[in-house]
Prior knowledge:
This protein is an alpha+beta fold. Helices cover 37% and strands 14% of the residues. Strands 1-4 form a two-stranded antiparallel sheet. A hairpin with a 2-residue loop joins strand 2 and strand 3 (84-87).
Amino acid sequence: MNINNQDEVSKWVSKLIAENRLEEFYNSKYWRRLRKEVLIEHKYECQDCKARGFYTKANHVHHVQFVRRHPSLALSKVYLFQSKEYRNLIPLCHDCHEQRHGYRQKEKKEPLTEERW
């Protein structure tokens, strides 16, 4: 497979998605190599924490354009939208990655009233 060809990547990843075998993509040498490259480029720093003034070690690389929706971008660091280039792969810590995916929602607390006191 030629990983420089988006059509080939798209066919490969789309097939894995259709066969419910996407974990093979995340275990592939292509993804592992690119993931490491992105982490090194950003000095293993969580970009969401860094934007808030904190420094946390990144141990995940997040696809802005989700692999299941955009298989052709699975191995792309950037993507184009309305002729503007954006980052597709972002290093994140575990908590920020879960937050980006909506796995961890902050608990909504009911306001404290006399009855609840």
